Amino acid sequence: MTSPTHEKMTQRRVAELAGVSQATVSLVLNGKADAASRIPEETRNRVLEIIEKTTYVADPAARRLAGMGNKILGVFTYEPAFPNETADFYTPLLTGIEARSEELGCDLLLFTSAPVENGRRQIFHGNNRLGLADGCLLLGLEMDAAELSRLVDNNFPFVAVGRRDVPGVPYVGADYVSGTAELTRAALAAGHERFFYLHVDSAAESVADRQLGFHTELQKAGIESVQLRACTGDDYLADWKAITTADPTVLFIEAPRHALEIYELARQAGVRVPSDLSIVVLGEPSRPSAQAIDFTRLSPPRTELGAEAVTLLRRILSSDDAPSESESRILLDCVVESGTTLAPPRNEGKHL
Amino acid sequence: MTSPTHEKMTQRRVAELAGVSQATVSLVLNGKADAASRIPEETRNRVLEIIEKTTYVADPAARRLAGMGNKILGVFTYEPAFPNETADFYTPLLTGIEARSEELGCDLLLFTSAPVENGRRQIFHGNNRLGLADGCLLLGLEMDAAELSRLVDNNFPFVAVGRRDVPGVPYVGADYVSGTAELTRAALAAGHERFFYLHVDSAAESVADRQLGFHTELQKAGIESVQLRACTGDDYLADWKAITTADPTVLFIEAPRHALEIYELARQAGVRVPSDLSIVVLGEPSRPSAQAIDFTRLSPPRTELGAEAVTLLRRILSSDDAPSESESRILLDCVVESGTTLAPPRNEGKHL
DNA sequence: CTGAAAGCGCTTACAG
DNA sequence: CTGAAAGCGCTTACAG
């Protein structure tokens, strides 16, 4: 039942129909009718009836303007979030973000309008629209330090997903240092001494953190020489060659995708995993594919990461529950999945 | 450069800083500065500079109230969009939506705050926030007809993804009728006469469309008796039993997931596909898993669907390029993937 | 108990 | 060329 002329339904029109003032409609609508100014049942019911009949809903823009808070959380992703290449990374985060936002009654504003430069979106640009949201979540493997600083300086409420080096940046990240250290200790305990580490070619904090955990444990164990290599990401054969040359007993591979490729090359070369060569992976694909290898691996709690980031942002936004400096920098434990690709090394000189 | 007291940035404050009136800021901001009232370059630049420095953005709610668009497109999903169970359906749509929005310079507002009732989100509720966006995209397998009608009546600009029966609803959907008809003709041409159709247990238009295409072709071919069955979705053994009892030569299965389960049961029962039994699937998983069976199947252009829905919404929103009634109801062709699971039937009485 | 009024931040005629 | 003012639809003190 809309107006015949398709006039927009407003509180004024509802008020007319109910024979009361517009303010009364607002009061009834907001429940405060009971407390502050007790509107008589009869009036109240009459208004509610009209509201029902007209299917009136308060204009959210007007509500917002009148100070009802907009409950919009921004989400900035450095790369488009949904295409397959990046979905593995973003989807589980978004799952957590969505779920927690739903609980908190917030809507999510994806800044898809941010212009792309050098294949990455820019936060700051001509018509930056960050201000549309109450605060913002930042997602991406790497983030621009200058942009983060500026955000901090501007006092714009935001939370980065993933640990960040930039001072003052609130974040919720995975504790890759401890997780990698734990897996490294497991490899040491199994008797490994010849390590090879194939990492992602990136200056991201997560990449550095994993290496830190790795190196710390090796150092404790007195192992000095370790071969490190940035995965080419396309010429896996070259990577594999480097590995065979180094002849390790255990391979630490940062990215699940790289691990799959290398595993396949190993198989083709007749190298059995883990009897000939152990493989430890420092991450996990978001969706286990049916034929996946059950790697010994680190499982970052990505969904939880997203959810906790929302919660932290919400706290930052709430005036009464402001988190302390240290509460604004949260690390969540990674789960270590024992898997089947870590075993004691063979007792020979040459392995591969 | 935010105010030390963290006061909200407004046009008034920008105006103060630039030493002009608030109205002037608005004029500069909306470009009309050139045409109507030519503001001197100098004033203009001064204002723009302050805007840049303060990273001021016009409050979207206020803009809306004042009757302007804000380049925010709403996205309403009837179920949470990211969890694994629904990701297959939503992700490719969102990929297209995101990409096209990026091109158009729009941001995406996900209505995660819509309260869930009976496991589905409700569009209309106490504090409905649809109006914050310029218009809205609706995603979901099934949509509530009453809600759609109300949206139409309210004259709210929106586009449904997927064909809808409700009059007046603009949509961009997949042409399942033609696609299914084509596959049905292929099965007929291969010599099949005993069909079994396992469909999704839903009243969705897409489900009806596929059956329409299927039945139309069978009728043309003079085939009368066809076994139809709503897939249980959990007790696949019961489904398989029903199939063996009917003893078809070709199986049409609507959902890819169901197809995988039935295929596996067939395999276990020693029924070879397609030599003993052909299987035709009327959909496609969003991500081909490595060990996937190359079903003869229908591939709906989901990414394109999302992108085109954005474009249609944009046209609806633009006053100068309003689409006609018929242009507001778009069907995109499905691709038929020949696959390997459709072959001529064996020339025997009993097959399974 | 209810109405008149101010104010949220913006756009856009309308005056100077 | 620019400012003062009305109005978008709401909420909420503040008067009656």
Summarize the structure.
Helices cover 39% and strands 16% of the residues of chain A.
Can you walk me through this structure?
- Two copies of one chain form a homodimer.
- With 352 residues, the first copy, chain A, is an alpha/beta fold.
- Chain A folds into three domains: 46 residues, 434 Repressor (Amino-terminal Domain); 141 residues, Response regulator (Rossmann fold, 3-Layer(aba) Sandwich), CATH 3.40.50; 124 residues, Rossmann fold.
- Helices cover 39% and strands 16% of the residues of chain A.
- In chain A, the strands form three sheets. In chain A, strands 2-1-5-6-7-13 form a six-stranded parallel sheet, with helices on one face. A six-stranded mixed sheet of chain A has the order 9-8-10-11-12-14, with helices on both faces.
- In chain A, helix 7 packs parallel to helix 8 and helix 9 crosses helix 10.
- The radius of gyration of chain A is 27 Å and the shape is elongated.
- The N and C termini of chain A lie far apart (77 Å).
- The N terminus of chain A is likely disordered.
- The interface between A and B is large, with 54 and 57 residues.
- Strand 2 of chain A pairs antiparallel with strand 2 of chain B.
- Chain A binds a DNA duplex (16 and 16 nucleotides) through helix 2 and helix 4.
